[in-house]
Amino acid sequence: MLFRRIVLCALLVGALAGLLVSAVQHWQAIPLIAAAEVFEGSGEAADPVATTVHDHDHDHAQGDAHAHDAAEWAPDDGSERHVWTAIANVLTAIGFGLVLVAAITTWEHLRGRPLASARSGLVWGAAGWICVFGLPTLGLPPELPGSVAAPLAERQSWWLLAVTCGGAGLALLAFVRGPLRFAGLAVLVLPFAVGAPHLTGGPFAGHDADIAAQLQALADPFALATTIATAVQWLALGGLSGWAVGRWVRPALVGPALS
Questions:
Q1: In the chain, at which residue ranges do the beta strands (DSSP E only) sit?
Q2: At what angle do helices 79-111 and 209-244 cross, to 10 degrees?
Q3: Are the CB atoms for 25 and 81 separated by under 8 Å?
Q4: pLDDT, tens digit, for every residue of 112-129?
Q5: Are 15 and 94 in contact (CB under 8 A)?
Q6: Where would I find the H helices in 28-117?
């Protein structure tokens, strides 16, 4: 019963938050992405490793047009692209919602008293935003189409390190009592001591100077738009998760202190 309620709440919370962030992206981030995509193929802005792999695969795909078409598929601009973006946002939000609902439920159960609410959920949502977006973005800012970056595996590894350290550091600061809690500050700084992977030459190397300047002019508004969109998503996820736990999950928890 408890597991079922947690999953159903995560589905509801994720659907609502995913649709909300899709609306915000449609208003802010997507126009900037579309503007940057105009310049995406104008220079040798792709990762040299990725370009080499693509050319190698292309040479071996001449006799398999169907596989090549499948690899090149992308949603058409307009309504199809917006629909698939919304679907991706909803599925992502459901995954995050499942983590938040389970975490808030566990927190309330361990404390043995009613704590979950929309207000406390906002705090959880803010913490999730810091872990998943805020902290990693300090090392790896959001990337526009046409920008170059370090190899994907290196960026993914550093992002995972930043998210893990963010969660561990905030948990130490929030839940541990005594001097040990301040070790959380050292954990938060650890990813930056390691250093995020970057390429020399800037994110728009390979483009003409004029095009690089136009892309650079789009980069700051895009970073701001992405920050706003993710903040809206996580605050919505947190507030809705806290409310859902208090409304539907709490009755399934065992313990007289919560009744």
A1: none
A2: 40
A3: no
A4: 889 999 999 999 999 999
A5: yes
A6: 29-37, 48-59, 65-72, 79-111
